[in-house]
Amino acid sequence: MSRLIFETRRRLPPPATRKGTISIEAPPELPRVVPPSLLRRALPVLIVILIVGMIIAMVATGMRLISPQTLFFPFVLLLAATALYRGTDNKTRTEEVDAERADYLRYLSVVRDNIRTQAAQQRAAAEWSHPDPQDLAALPGSRRQWERDPQDPDFLVVRAGRHCAALNAALRVNDTADEIDLEPVSHSALRSLLDTQRTVRDVPTGIDLAKVSRITVLGDAGEVRAAVRSWIAQAVTWHDPTVLGIALAASDLEGPQWSWLKWLPHVDIPGELDGVGPARYLSTKPDELAALLDPALADRPAFTGGPADAARHLLIIIDDPDYDLKASPLAAGRAGVTVVHRSGSAPHREQYSDPERPILRIADGAIDRWETGGWQRYIDTADQLGADNTGHLARRLSRWDSNPSHSGLQSAATRGASFTTLLGIPDASRLDVPTLWAPRHRDDELRVPIGVTATGEPLIFDLKDEAEGGMGPHGLMIGMTGAGKSQTLMSILLSLLTTHSAERLIVIYADFKGEAGADIFRNFPQVVAVISNMAEKRSLADRFADTLRGEVARREIMLREAGRQVQGSAFNSVTEYENARESGAAGASDLPPIPTLFVVADEFTLMLADHP
Question: With CB atoms 3.0 to 4.6 Å apart as the test, which of 181, 437, 461, 463 could cross-link to 501 if both were Cys?
Answer without folding.
Answer: 437
